[in-house]
Design a protein that fits this description.
Aspartate Aminotransferase, domain 2, single chain, binds pyridoxal-5'-phosphate, 4-stranded mixed β-sheet, Aspartate Aminotransferase, domain 1, 14 helices, 7-stranded mixed β-sheet, 2 domains, alpha/beta
């Protein structure tokens, strides 16, 4: 496709800075551009391709289901929908499931459920406390929930009912809580905010506060869920259970599916309260079942844990490698991560140069902040791929022009 950049300029919105490559093929942890150049993909479809690209179990599930039933609509149940709901409930601490198409939509639904709970059980309480540097999606309400002014300012006025407070600060949650508060919504580890891991005890304290006040704890595990942090759900590592949990990204391993799950006590929707035309789409549900079953059977979450260090479970492979780079290159300020979600923080705003130099050398990484590179590869990667990525960083770093 020779004129693809012309087509991009002419037909697509200029809403994101895209890479100067046309991605045409993916297999495992690799993708290829239109010239046949191969890249090691440590972005993984934006923390989505849990099993890598075009995994055989996904292809098989998609092929099989596409010949049986592709779409049903919200008026009928389908076997993949029911089987996936059962699998999610049996794997998690939650009781009921609603399927949708994306992360933002899952969070919207979770917030609507919390507001419904507030109306019915908390004298009309409607406010949700969220945190600075969070990311909950791009709809208007989720932009209000996302505590990052640069996402919010262009779209003011935003829907009311969200209070953004400091992350990792239980007193900030406590001070913001009023009689109008129906829920606190947190990411167990902030992903888009720069891989921010809270202090031991923060999530437990938030859980305890919600219990004390009778309000709900919503965990946005759209990025951290389904193995990314080294356990099926991130909350397992923090010794708490949410009242509502949201999922997307890795759940479908590459197909668009999201979900929110709730404990029975707050599953208060009545017929007509919420819906989605494509939610529970059997093709997506059948694929997500295949992804989840593969993850469970092959302990893929355990692979994510071994692949990278985690303060709970001890030092592991990728983070050790990143730490070695940190000790070699003084312009690296800090490296940290959990499971297969990690960040390299620099002392200067050089992340875009690093991203482009890595691209040149066959590695895709994400410039999550001007001074930080985020790594979120497929959960199935092995030692050889980690070594290769570390080798590319080691090749790229000495050539950077650092002032
Ligand atoms: C924690 C979190 N919540 C919500 C979203 C939004 O998901 P989506 O882009 O599928 O709407 C993201 C996406 O990056 C996310 O990381």
């Amino acid at each position: 496709m020779k004129n693809w950049q012309e087509l991009e300029r002419k037909y697509l919105f200029n809403n994101v800075e895209r890479l100067p490559i046309l991605m045409v093929k993916g297999q495992g942890a690799r993708v290829w551009d239109e010239n046949g150049k191969k890249y090691l993909d440590f972005v993984g479809g934006w923390a989505v391709c849990s099993l890598g690209h075009c995994h055989p179990v996904m292809i098989k599930a998609l092929n099989k289901q596409s010949k049986i039933l592709i779409q049903a609509g919200p008026h009928a149940c389908t076997p993949p929908q029911l089987q996936l709901a059962e699998l999610l409930v049996k794997t998690s601490c939650l009781d009921r499931v609603f399927f949708c198409n994306s992360g933002a939509e899952a969070n919207e639904g979770a917030v609507k459920l919390a507001r419904r709970y507030g109306k019915l059980k908390l004298s009309g309480a409607y406010e949700i406390i969220t945190t600075f540097n969070s990311f909950h999606g791009r709809t208007l309400a989720m932009t209000a929930a996302t505590g990052q002014p640069h996402y919010q300012d262009p779209y003011q006025p935003l829907p009311a009912g969200f209070k953004n407070v400091a992350y990792n600060d239980i007193d900030a949650i406590k001070s913001a809580t009023t009689r109008d508060t129906c829920a606190v919504m947190l990411e167990p580890v902030q992903g888009e905010g720069g891989v921010n891991i809270p202090d031991e005890g923060y999530l437990k304290a938030a859980r305890q506060w919600c219990n004390e006040k009778g309000i709900l704890l919503i965990l946005d595990e759209i990025q951290t869920g389904i193995g990314r942090l080294g356990t099926m759900f991130g909350y397992e590592q923090f010794g708490i259970e949410p009242d509502i949990l949201t999922l997307a990204k890795g759940l479908g391993g590459g197909v668009p599916i999201g979900a929110f799950l709730a404990k029975e006590k707050c599953a208060v929707f009545a017929p007509g309260d919420h819906g989605s035309t494509f939610g529970s789409n059997p093709l997506m549900c059948a694929t997500a079942i295949a992804v989840m079953k593969y993850i469970i059977k092959n302990d893929v979450a355990g692979n994510a844990m071994r692949g990278m260090a985690c303060s709970v479970y001890g030092s592991q492979y990728l983070l050790e490698g990143l730490k070695k780079l940190q000790s070699k290159y003084p312009f690296i300020n800090e490296v940290h991560g959990r499971g297969l979600l990690a960040v390299i923080e620099f002392k200067q705003e050089i992340s875009n140069s690093v991203r482009m130099a890595c691209l040149e050398n066959g590695l895709l990484v994400n410039s999550v902040k001007p001074d930080a590179i985020r790594i979120m590869p497929p959960l199935t990667i092995g030692k050889q791929e980690i070594d290769e990525a570390l080798g590319i960083f080691d090749k790229v770093f000495p050539k950077l022009k650092i002032q």
